[in-house]
Structure prediction request, 552 residues.
Amino acid sequence: MDAERLSHPRGRDDDGARAAAELAARASYGRLVAFLTSGSGDVLLAEDALGHAFEQALRRWPVDGVPDRPDAWLLSVARNRQRDDWKSARRRLSTPLDEAGEPAMTDHSEDFPDRRLALLLMCAHPAIAEDIRTPLMLQAVLGFDAAQIGAAFAVPTATMAQRLVRAKRRIRDARIPFEPPGPEALPDRLPPVLEAVYGCLAVRPSGPDDGPAPSLAEGLFLAELLASSLATDAEAWGLASMAAFLASRPATGPFVPLEEQDPQAWHPVLMRRGREYLERSSRLSAGGAPGRFQLEAAIQAAHADRARTGETPWTDLATLYAALNTVAPTLGSLVAEAAVLRRADGPHAALRRLDAVALQFPGAVERFQPLAAVRADALEAAGDADGAAEAWERALELSAEERVRAYLRRRLDLLRTDRLQTDEGRV
Amino acid sequence: MRYTLLLHYPEMTAEELGEEVLDQGKAAMAGYAATLQQAGVLLGAEVLQPSHASTTVTTRDGKLRIQDGPFADSREQMGGYFVIDVADLDAAIGWAAQAPGAQWGTVEIRPGAVHTVDGVWTPNA
Prediction:
């Protein structure tokens, strides 16, 4: 995984380097948790044992020096702890515990097997509630704590901690298997894993600063991990491609709609990775219909093309969205298609589409911010200033993110200024 | 006539109950199981794990749907049970999906905690 290449070339180099170092540490954390879980299937016990090993390391490494193979050292301390826990569990239950619970490992080998794919599959097991799968991955595979994950999902720390512990107890008590299913069952098990990793890409860090919250870089990391573990799954590479394109765009600073962003501010290395992954995905699905994530990646690639051609290919985007909404229509993708239609076919086409979406998803008009914003933009382009102002105001009401609110307020102010000038011109 | 006695009670952790109450409860259950065994009426008994470990499945829509959590629909009532012994939840889900009842209702999969062997409570492996 090219974690070190995630640092942005323009500015924020320190942040980039720190993020890269953190990702490298997370890569090892996930491998250790996965391997420690592989025998017992008990991720709670594995994390406790590894937490104990990190504590020991903090105490002993400053004195004894950092061992030659830090991962092997951590693993060995954690496994001893795990063994002690097993023994005490045996005493408690006075029941024989499976000795096969301990994975075999030659103690001299630093190179223990990478079981993170199995861990990802376990976190997104169909018997685990959907809304906790992504947080579970962020914790077990990447080592984020409940405060950081809570901040990313706008959930109080205590609530997030409780839900994570419940899910892990459930994995242990219901005996959700760690071993991934055979190749015949794998296709059924993959969609929820892809969904959960997709969920990482939608994470919006917010709330108090409890340290770094998971962001797009982590979503990209998981998507690349998944794609490289599966190697031949077109959709996994599609998701990785989409993640790379999303991560290539600035996540901080004022909100600017994608089509108005300066392509010079996009990260060229990440865009290249996005294109490579998309080509890989296309090769793998050659002969078959493109899947949802490949189409989503192709949409991002079309936007990224503006960096080369100087123009957004609106007609191509309309075709891609039509395909996406045939394969996997969601409220979000249908509204996004309407936004594209406003450029490709004009504001009236966009408004007709939005009316159809509103019929299909009752209540969406009152709840879904992007629908209000796309409608406002289309109404403004169609010359309905009153309707547009009303829709911008609704979009503003529905936005929690301050960067987006600032943008919506600016649009509303601009519209009002324009109207004032028009009215004055009339007088 | 075979009867199934269904136990319903509030879920409480060992800490909430306290050691004394827990020990009293265990002794009472041990005595009850032994009494039933002696009377020759005990066919088998299970104490189940708490509902956080429960999974519900249905194939009503022709497709297997799996849900995190216990059965919670007041229109449907408990109609029967099977006790199976398999390696893990995936195996249990596989069998539950084949239960005819899954086609017209819901099957809740609850792991066991202890069960009786000859009237003596024995922890599940």
Summary: Confidence is low (pLDDT under 50) at residues 1-12, 94-101, 103-109 of chain A. Chain A touches chain B at residues 41, 93-96, 98, 125-129, 166, 169-170, 173-177, 181 (CB under 8 Å). Chain A is about 70% helix and 0% strand.
